[in-house]
């Protein structure tokens, strides 16, 4: 799925959101992501974002506030050397799950997603104040990129 300017759109979930939804509505041992996302009776209001190909900024929309569809946070890539955080510290933060809406997730089980993104070698973590997003390359076990909330 692409946004109006051709940028790819991504869904954002937390492990807790997916587990809570499964516990409340499906109660399956290992549901497919598709069973949660496309549930016929209940809608999971997840966040979603798109990344501008030109400026590399990330525009995150809050899917939990349907009364305000224009609520948006903008994140810009920042220099890794300007943040004094270790890989171990990053891994202690809340992990978020990012799904590229162009990927074929028909047969993707939630447990697979918890272990590792099967499409790309990255895990995503967010700081407690949601001002920083850390992207870890799982193949190299390094911090690959850092995005910082931009208050305009």
Account of the protein in words:
The protein has helices at residues 15-26, 33-37, 87-91, 110-115, and strands at 9-14, 47-51, 58-61, 72-78, 94-100, 122-126, 132-137, 142-150. By secondary structure, it is α+β, with helices and mostly antiparallel strands. Strands 1-2-3-4-8-7-6-5 form an 8-stranded antiparallel barrel. A hairpin with a 5-residue loop joins strand 6 (122-126) and strand 7. The protein is globular and about 45 Å long. The mean pLDDT is 84.
Kindly report the average pLDDT value: 84
Q: What's the gyration radius in Å?
A: 16 Å
Major sheet strand order: 1-2-3-4-8-7-6-5
Count of DSSP-assigned helices: 4
Order of helices and strands: EHHEEEHEHEEE
Task: Specify the structural class.
Answer: alpha+beta
Rough shape? globular
The low-confidence parts are none
How big a fraction of the residues is strand?
25-35%
Number of strands: 8
The span between the termini is 27 Å
What is the helical fraction, as a range of percent? 10-25%
Biggest beta sheet attributes: 8 strands, antiparallel, barrel
């Amino acid at each position: 799925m692409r946004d109006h300017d051709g940028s790819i759109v991504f869904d954002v979930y937390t492990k807790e959101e997916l587990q809570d939804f499964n516990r409340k509505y499906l109660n399956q041992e290992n549901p497919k992501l598709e069973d949660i996302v496309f549930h016929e009776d209940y809608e999971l209001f997840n966040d979603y974002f798109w990344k501008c190909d030109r400026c590399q900024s990330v525009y995150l929309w809050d899917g939990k506030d349907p009364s305000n569809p224009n609520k948006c946070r903008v994140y810009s890539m920042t220099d890794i050397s300007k943040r004094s955080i270790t890989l171990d510290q990053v891994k202690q933060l809340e992990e978020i799950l990012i799904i590229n809406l162009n990927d074929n997730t028909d047969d993707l089980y939630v447990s697979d997603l918890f272990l590792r993104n099967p499409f790309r070698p990255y895990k995503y973590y967010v700081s407690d104040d949601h001002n920083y997003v850390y992207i870890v390359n799982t193949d190299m076990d390094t911090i690959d990129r850092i995005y910082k909330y931009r208050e305009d």
